[in-house]
Specification:
The complex is a heterodimer of chains A (475) and B (426). By secondary structure, chain A is an alpha+beta fold. Chain A is built from 15 helices and eleven strands. In chain A, helix 2 runs antiparallel to helix 15 and helix 8 crosses helix 9. Chain A is globular, with a radius of gyration of 22 Å. The two termini of chain A are 34 Å apart. The relative contact order of chain A is 0.18. Chain B is built from 14 helices and twelve strands. In chain B, the strands form four sheets. Chain B has a four-stranded antiparallel beta sheet. A four-stranded antiparallel beta sheet of chain B has the order 6-8-9-7. Chain B is α+β, with helices and mostly antiparallel strands. The two termini of chain B are 28 Å apart. Chains A and B meet through helix 5, helix 6, helix 12 and helix 14 of A and helix 4, helix 8, helix 10 and helix 13 of B. Chain B: Keywords: Membrane, Transmembrane, Transmembrane helix. Chain A: It comes from Segetibacter aerophilus.
């Protein structure tokens, strides 16, 4: 375990701010650089660090590559950011990786797409009460306007009391265990902190490549020295932030579940619909894993997260091979070699910090109520602001998207994508069918032609720098 | 008789004055790889994978110039001469056009097929290390078994209601009845060719010979290995630490060639470290790989790596350089990560004899375990393929193996338990 420079690391990286349920993200574009720098210097002092737990409000800030360029970060420094960051999220190559076709095509994005105005900064505000958010927002926005900065988007969030996402499943259960952030925590093998924060050793015992500046560019001596290059480690205590705004078509999801679980007379059977939906997710609505409770939901185990797939459910009879959570975090089940699999999956973890947006279809988030509700909200009215941190975009976020979620040949499967979040158009070539197998005795049940339940509405890669680096950008 | 697969590598020197012609030609091939009029790979039924790779002029370790090359490689079924003949049957005009950009090809208007054949044979690089994922299966078999697999899956879907109440064995028999009633699957009534008596004799005879030699020579081999390791260690200690710098723009260029994501190609070439010791060590290692992949790793996995269709190592330029050529499932990013995560020791043992490889310790320690160093090295040595052909772009090695297993479940009488295991494949 290493000592973290918690005063240097922005608070959101170390905390999910669950005590601050109200939040808004502001996407900003800088026009007047000088004013923007002044503004940044002012708010720089108010950025929440990771040292103290905020009780009333918190503010964090992240920048796109274009944003840092606009603020005058030198050319050679900009070149030291990772290639994936530089390329961004909306190129043809990335479309292929993420399955952003059709409705999810970056051309149709509300922000971050090739036809959208350039995003430079994201300011993230969190508060305990809704009233406080209104006041906080007002003050912050006034100052943004005064500095002549354009607000491109105000992205609202919601955090339901039951911690469920819009489909009605408890979310955010499985986070990597970080010894540095835990007061006691399970005796489980912690993941190296360098997987999520630059400047610390990663799972390979190495320092992930970090953006740097020349020693001459750091007269105030703000940054540590990178041993290999003798440059100053601008990225230390920072992290790459992935933001994808995902629309969720809740009605389509539950309609599909009910339609595909009818009895012989064509009647809906509520329990069967919930079971089918849970098979696609890999957890029951309460959060309990299908591995621990294969037949029905058992909320008493909803926080139990130490289960294994290959060891407990090698044939996928509880949790199907292709279920969303089994694909996204396969634990011990890769290639049927548990030890090697656990070793490998540690290298592909994400620190998730996203929140939902939009009003739930039914407040209870109960499938029966969802089915009964006449939902008139347009597509994209609700979904998930998927936000995560990682040190290596290629090995972590992009790997999971490309090699696990969007891979029609994941493990022993054929022509199946993630049944919940993948785009059924796959990689854009129409020769792939999109099916989902549920392993059963004597043989699997196979659902065909899954519709699109989740689509991409916007997205970008950001860098969340250390507190010192924010000040450096303001200078 | 069991099908035999092998790899062909041809190496030519390119003419500087014809470089643009060559680039244009290869681009043209690449645009319609299956059915262009020069060299329609889709019509070459014996080819699993093929590629044309342009290699820039460079220098050997002593600074002597190495000319620019054009490399052709193919992974094929059966006899080499028949394979070359099949390529010339449908691709002769293409070969002639390409060879006109190479040194040593007859500079006259009408070149005969025999002259082309002679040119090919005189540029055939000797075979060295070879790994095959789906051992023994011909292109035809792989394609047929894929269709069979889909037909079985569709049959299960269409008849789910009727089948679900039956026992596993009854279901399997129903499936078989259905499949064998179809003319297009008549071929599947006969199991795939097994090793003939002669093949078996050669296969096991050679194994027995190897085992006998190993036993008899054991003390001698042990001394040899220990001595070699000590000699190696002395060299390792003197070597400088290697660079971790990853060339981002090159990676993005290489990734532009990866358009399919399900399967991709990898070629990496580099100088072998100076001195005869390293070369001799490498030769012995590749000799071992050939034997080990034939007798141990012959079920789809190179140790625990399940994604390689074909991988080959070939010496170039009078054994001064080594090229590694492979066809695999997934992206190059995943491929390289797999090497480090799953099998760093064998990777080090093979590649540590090449220049710039991350420093090893006792042959297999450190080396490829240095994630950053290994990836930086591999990307530095990697070169793009201008033309790349796969006979079955949408099937992985795991699919191929599973599809054969589905077919094999059709034969003979099996127990209910076995029938259930068979159904679990679907």
């Amino acid at each position: 375990m290493v000592t973290l420079a918690k005063k240097e690391i922005q608070g959101l990286i170390l905390r999910g701010y669950s005590n601050l349920p109200n939040a808004i993200y502001l996407l900003l574009q800088i026009t007047n650089v000088e004013n923007a720098k002044k503004w940044l210097a002012e708010i720089g002092d108010q950025i929440t660090d990771g040292d103290t737990k905020p009780r009333e409000n918190a503010m964090n800030i992240a920048f796109t590559l274009e944003g840092m360029k606009k603020l005058g970060l030198s050319k050679n420094a900009l070149k030291t950011f990772s290639g994936e960051f530089e390329e961004g999220m909306s190129t043809e190559h990335k479309q292929l990786m993420f399955g952003d076709y059709g409705k999810s095509d970056p051309k149709n994005w509300a922000w971050g797409g090739p036809h959208c105005p350039e995003v430079h900064v994201m300011l993230m505000l969190y508060t305990d009460t809704n009233e406080r958010l209104e006041t906080f927002k007002k003050v912050v926005i006034e100052r943004i306007n005064a500095a002549g900065i354009t607000i491109l988007e105000k992205i609202d969030t919601c955090r339901p009391d039951n911690e469920k996402e819009h489909f009605g499943f408890k979310d955010g259960i499985s986070q990597p265990f970080l010894a540095e952030l835990s007061e006691k925590g399970p005796a489980d093998d912690p993941i190296a902190i360098g997987e999520f924060i630059l400047g610390y050793k990663n799972e390979y015992g190495q320092y992930t490549d970090s953006p740097s500046i020349l020693p001459s560019e750091d007269p105030a001596n703000l940054f540590p020295v990178e041993p290999e290059t003798n440059n100053k480690d601008f990225g230390a205590n920072g992290s790459y932030l992935v933001f994808r705004q995902l629309g969720q078509d809740v009605k389509a999801f539950w309609d599909f579940a009910y339609e595909n679980s009818k009895d012989k007379n064509g009647n809906y059977i509520h329990e069967e619909a919930v079971k089918l939906a849970s098979k696609m997710v890999g957890r029951w609505p309460s959060g309990t894993s299908l591995v621990d409770s294969p037949e029905k939901d058992d909320p008493s185990m909803c926080d139990k997260n130490d289960f294994l797939y290959h060891t407990q459910d090698p044939q996928g009879l509880g949790c199907p091979y292709g279920a969303h959570v089994r694909r996204n975090h396969p634990r011990d089940c890769l290639e049927g070699i548990p030890k090697e699999s656990s070793f490998i999956t540690r290298k592909h973890r994400l620190l998730r910090r996203g929140r939902s947006f939009g009003a739930p279809v039914a407040k209870s988030m109960n499938p029966q109520d969802i089915l009964k509700t006449n939902d008139t909200a347009p597509s994209g009215a609700r979904g998930l602001n998927f936000i995560c941190f990682n040190a290596d975009l290629a090995r972590q976020f992009e790997f999971i998207q490309n090699i696990w979620i969007n891979n029609p040949k994941f493990q022993s499967l054929t022509d199946e994508l993630d049944p919940l979040v993948a785009n059924p158009l796959g990689r854009g070539n129409n020769n792939e069918t999109n099916s989902f197998s549920i392993q059963e005795k004597p043989f699997r049940k196979r659902l065909q032609n899954l519709p699109m339940f989740v689509h991409t509405m916007g997205g970008a890669y950001f860098f969340m720098p250390s507190i010192s680096a924010v000040k450096y950008l303001a200078s | 008789m069991m099908n035999v697969q092998d790899g062909l590598t041809l190496l030519f020197d390119t003419r500087e004055d014809k470089l643009q012609d060559l680039i244009q030609l290869l681009n043209k091939l690449s645009e319609n790889i299956e059915a262009n009029d020069l060299m329609p790979f889709g019509k070459m039924k014996k080819i699993h994978f093929a590629r044309w790779v342009m290699m820039d002029a460079t220098h050997d370790v002593d600074g002597n110039p190495i000319p620019a090359h054009l490399l052709f490689e193919s992974d094929y079924d059966g006899d080499e001469a028949e394979h070359i003949n099949e390529m010339l049957d449908v691709g002769l005009p293409g070969f002639i056009k390409i060879f006109r950009t190479c040194k040593g090809f007859p500079e006259k208007e009408n070149v005969t097929r025999e002259e082309v054949l002679v040119f090919i044979n005189s540029h055939n690089a000797p075979k060295t290390g070879l790994f095959i994922g789906a051992w023994g299966r011909s292109v035809e078999q792989i394609k047929q078994e894929k269709e069979l697999y889909y037909a079985v899956e569709d049959y299960l879907d269409a008849n789910r209601e009727a089948l679900i109440t039956k026992s596993p064995l009854e279901i399997r028999n129903k499936v078989r009845e259905y499949v064998w009633s179809k003319d297009e699957f008549a071929w599947s009534k006969v199991p795939p060719g097994k090793r003939s008596f002669k093949q078996n004799f050669q296969y096991y005879g050679y194994l027995a010979f190897l085992v006998c030699c190993a036993i008899i020579l054991l003390p001698f081999l042990l001394i040899m290995v220990i001595t070699a390791l000590i000699m190696l260690r002395r060299r390792e200690m003197k070597e400088p630490a290697t660079d971790h710098h990853l060339d981002k723009s090159k990676v993005s260029l290489l990734q532009k060639h990866e358009k399919f994501n399900l399967q991709n190609q990898f070629s990496a070439v580099g100088n072998i470290k100076p001195g005869t010791f390293r070369l001799r060590f490498l030769k012995k290692t590749l000799w071992m790989i050939n034997r080990v992949s034939r007798y141990v790793f012959n079920k789809g996995k190179l140790a625990t790596i399940p994604s390689i269709h074909f991988a080959r190592w070939v010496f170039l330029d009078d054994h001064k350089r080594l090229i590694f050529i492979s066809n695999y499932d997934g992206t190059s990013d995943q491929y390289l990560t797999d090497f480090v995560n799953k099998q760093p020791a064998p990777m080090s043992a093979i590649f540590c004899h090449m220049m710039d490889f991350p420093k090893t310790k006792w042959l297999v320690l450190e080396g490829a375990r240095d994630m950053k160093g290994f990836v930086a090295w591999a990307r530095k040595k990697q070169i793009p393929s201008q033309v790349w052909y796969s006979a079955y772009k949408d099937i992985t090695v795991k699919n191929i193996i599973a599809n054969t297993n589905v077919r094999m479940g059709l034969y003979g009488s099996i127990s209910d338990k076995k029938a259930q295991q068979w159904l679990n494949l679907l």
